[in-house]
Amino acid sequence: MSEAALLNVKNLEAWYGESHILHGVDFSVRKGEVATLLGRNGAGKTTTLKSIMGMVAKRRGSVIYEGVETIGLSSDRIARLGIAICPEERGIFASLDVRENLLLPPKIKSGGLAIESILDLFPNLRERMSSQGTKLSGGEQQMLAIARILRTGATLLMLDEPTEGLAPVIIEQIGLTIKKLKESGFTILLVEQNFRFASTVADRYFVMEHGKIIDTFANSELSANMEKLHAYLGV
Amino acid sequence: MAASSTVIQSPSGARGFNTELKVFGGMAALLIVLPLTGLVYPYFIMQALCFALFACAFNLLIGYVGLLSFGHAVFLGTAGYVSAHAARVWGLAPELAILLAVMAALGLGLAIGLLAIRRQGIYFAMTTLALSQMMYFVYLQAPFTHGEDGIQGVPQARLLGLIDLSKPLILYYSVLAIFLLAFLLIYRAINSPFGEILKAIRENEPRAISLGYKTDRYKLVAFVLSAGLAGLAGAVKVIVAQNASLTDVHWAMSGEVVLMTLVGGLGTIFGPVVGAFIITAMQQYLAGWGQWVQVAQGVIFVACVLAFRRGIVGEIAARLKIPL
């Protein structure tokens, strides 16, 4: 594993009730990179993110973040180490307005973005500050879901299918945002089904199948691996 | 950051605050004038105010955290007994008796909360019901409560050594002041960052946890706060009625507060007050109906659940598109 690894996942297993979902996931994420988990539906990508975040009740193996073993920690303590998740369902609090949603997450470390910088990244939100969470469009909800984890000081952002169900113009905007976040020093672990989108932002790819990582390659090796990737993803 | 703080001002929030402030002012003015009109018996309003505070405390839990406590009467009743005993037997001044009663309710709230908040939904409701029923049987048997007879003749002494509570109007305005202050405390709690976290927990607890909040702690604080305020209502009610009885700790009282809150509007600020006045008025003015009052309450409960789930205040707020 790389010396600069921020997150090291070894032999991670997870269960939903009796269903064994992850069968020993191994990968690491380097500081400052955009790593992407690719795979078909049901491969275990979201479960991997949830397991790292401590949101799956039964899990085993090792998840080391900045040298700290997190496998036995509760989700709130993992969040306070500096890992933040933007879930697929976005999880916007409907009864709170945009401002309240933005300010709700606790500041866990210094180094988070100021509200003004966040609004520069997501100008659409600036005009919607007093709108209720329920009144936002899908794209605005996604932007808010990403925006609100930027203020906390978390350094590893896990984004679960941020482009799902969004218009191409919004997807493009989210891609630009991810690039800017990377430039600002954030490390990003992305889960994507939209391979075209992933290829515009990712540094490295981890391909998952049946709850395991079955292949890994860098963005520079993408063209050489295209055929294999099509077979993996069935596209 | 100065620039950003001007950007993030919420105009709708300010408008909402103004509306609520106006309604609060109207409510306070009405309650100040009401006993002077001679239209309503002050004892009835005082009793309704105690139930209104009880319902507001209950609403803090169900309306803003999503926890249905089905044993909240235990805090009302416990504080009532402590207040009555402290004033009648130990001869403590009313403010000390009330303080002691609120502390007892807070302590009991902490003990019951620690056990109950580990569960959710129906299991939380059943745990609170079971624990409150245990306390009911304790009070039924304990000598200091005098069982079925209750503690009678609770003195209405001087509040803070100055305010003579034996004079009906002075008692009324003291109760009103306590109610309004407690109401403002609840309003402040709901509209603070703490209140926003409670709402987030109500809507999506796993998400609140994954943002870094230890949600059990917030739920426990809300539970204890709610228990303490219910205790304040119980302690004041005993000073008003001059007796503490098993009625206040019975499970039916826990059901009644659910009804009051539901009729007024779950999760609305003024709903529990309206609900408490309606239910108390029904019991007061339809007393001649005997057991039929309960049938009428049942009909209202069913009508609420079927036709207007938002409750009276909730419906008005939705129609006028204003927060209430």
Task: Give the SSE layout.
The complex is a heterodimer of chains A (235) and B (324).
Chain A: E1 5-16, E2 19-30, E3 34-39, H1 45-52, E4 58-65, E5 68-69, H2 75-81, E6 83-86, H3 98-103, H4 115-121, H5 123-126, H6 138-147, E7 156-160, H7 168-183, E8 187-191, H8 195-201, E9 204-209, E10 212-218, H9 222-233
Parallel strand pairs in A: 3-8, 3-9, 6-7, 7-8
Antiparallel strand pairs in A: 1-2, 1-4, 4-5, 9-10
Chain B: H1 2-7, H2 11-37, H3 42-64, H4 73-88, H5 94-116, H6 121-141, E1 158-159, E2 163-164, H7 168-190, H8 193-203, H9 205-210, H10 215-241, H11 251-264, H12 271-285, H13 292-306, H14 311-320
Antiparallel strand pairs in B: 1-2
Per DSSP, the total helix count of chain A is 9
Gyration radius of chain B, rounded: 20 Å
- Give the termini distance of chain A in whole angstroms: 30 Å
End-to-end distance of chain B, in Å? 32 Å
Question: What fraction of the residues of chain B are assigned to beta strands by DSSP?
Answer: under 5%
Largest sheet data of chain B? 2 strands, antiparallel
What can you tell me about this protein's structure?
The complex is a heterodimer of chains A (235) and B (324). With 235 residues, chain A is an alpha/beta fold. Chain A has one domain: 3-Layer(aba) Sandwich (Rossmann fold). Helix content of chain A is 33%, strand content 29%. Chain A has nine helices and ten strands. Chain A has helices spanning 45-52, 75-81, 98-103, 115-121, 123-126, 138-147, 168-183, 195-201, 222-233, and strands at 5-16, 19-30, 34-39, 58-65, 68-69, 83-86, 156-160, 187-191, 204-209, 212-218. In chain A, the strands form two sheets. Chain A has a six-stranded mixed sheet with strand order 6-7-8-3-9-10, sandwiched between helices. Chain A has a four-stranded antiparallel sheet with strand order 2-1-4-5, covered by helices on one side. In chain A, helix 7 packs parallel to helix 8. The mean pLDDT of chain A is 91. With 324 residues, chain B is mostly helical. Chain B has a domain at 41-249. In chain B, 73% of the residues lie in helices and 1% in strands. Chain B has 14 helices and two strands, in the order H-H-H-H-H-H-E-E-H-H-H-H-H-H-H-H. Chain B has a two-stranded antiparallel ribbon with strand order 1-2. In chain B, strand 1 and strand 2 form a beta hairpin. Chain B is globular. The two termini of chain B are 32 Å apart. The chains are: A alpha/beta (235), B mainly alpha (324). The A-B interface holds A 53-55, 74-76, 79-80, 84-85, 87, 91, 93-97, 99-100, 102-106, 108, 114-116, 119, 126, 129-130, 148-149, 152 and B 1, 3-4, 7-13, 193, 196-197, 199-200, 202-204, 206-207, 209-215.
